């Protein structure tokens, strides 16, 4: 079984906090969508919810929650991707976004545009999603940017959870309940069958390592014997 490493970022053993997040909705462009991230220090689940309005911007619209603080930084270079654990959802399409660059704001207070790295997903019920770095696509102002520099994994500056209208494809009330967001490292990418979750893979690995005379223990014993012969 592959070795793994799990770094909790939000939720899980790290309590959710509304102070970590702020709304970034289409109101900055004259829209009428709105979002909230409802959670507390005792929350096991964070609820991303609100209303996606497509009337104000002629079919376009978005609502999102992003991490606060332009000086924050996460070094995720030792990991293979992001693990999302979803508790429940309304079945609409959502987007996980990462940024490795935050520019100073314009004189009018608006943010300058930078490249975003996005992954779209849709779920129903409880589900664990593993997003490899290669699954994120670079976009600039909503359009794919094929000539973007690689994502700087040592300097992740922002996480966002977004819902878009996809030009009228979805609108109205939305709700996504998130258990946790974490970075995950594994020696193999877990594009596992539908009946095998990441949690099960990690559990099976733990059982194997704890079992007497496991292949791992036998291998370590054989190596120890060989080393003693050479000394």
TrEMBL record:
It comes from the Eukaryota. The lineage of its organism: Eukaryota, Fungi, Dikarya, Ascomycota, Pezizomycotina. Residues 17-178 form the NADH:ubiquinone oxidoreductase intermediate-associated protein domain. GO terms for molecular function: unfolded protein binding. Coiled coil: none annotated. Belongs to the CIA30 family. One of its GO terms (biological process) is NADH dehydrogenase complex assembly. Pfam families: CIA30 (PF08547). Gene3D superfamilies: Galactose-binding lectin. This is NADH:ubiquinone oxidoreductase intermediate-associated protein 30 domain-containing protein.
């Amino acid at each position: 079984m592959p070795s793994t490493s799990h770094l909790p970022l939000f939720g899980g053993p790290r309590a959710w906090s509304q102070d970590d997040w702020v709304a970034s909705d289409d109101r900055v462009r004259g829209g009428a969508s709105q979002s909230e991230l409802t959670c507390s220090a005792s929350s096991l689940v964070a609820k991303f919810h609100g209303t996606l309005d497509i009337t104000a911007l002629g079919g376009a619209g978005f609502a999102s929650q992003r991490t606060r603080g332009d000086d924050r930084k996460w070094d995720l270079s030792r990991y293979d991707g992001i693990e999302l654990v979803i508790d429940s959802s309304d079945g609409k399409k959502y987007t996980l976004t990462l940024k490795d660059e935050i520019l100073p704001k314009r004189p009018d207070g608006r943010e300058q545009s930078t490249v975003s790295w996005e992954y779209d997903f849709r779920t129903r019920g409880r589900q664990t999603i593993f997003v490899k770095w290669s699954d994120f696509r670079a976009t600039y102002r909503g359009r794919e940017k094929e000539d973007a520099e690689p994502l700087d994994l040592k300097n992740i500056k922002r996480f966002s959870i977004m819902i878009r209208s996809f030009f009228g494809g979805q609108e109205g009330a939305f709700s996504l309940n998130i258990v946790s967001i974490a970075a995950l490292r594994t020696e193999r990418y877990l594009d596992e069958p539908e009946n095998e979750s990441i949690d099960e893979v990690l559990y099976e690995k733990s059982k194997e390592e704890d079992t007497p005379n496991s292949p791992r223990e036998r291998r370590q014993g054989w190596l120890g014997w060989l080393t003693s012969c050479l000394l």
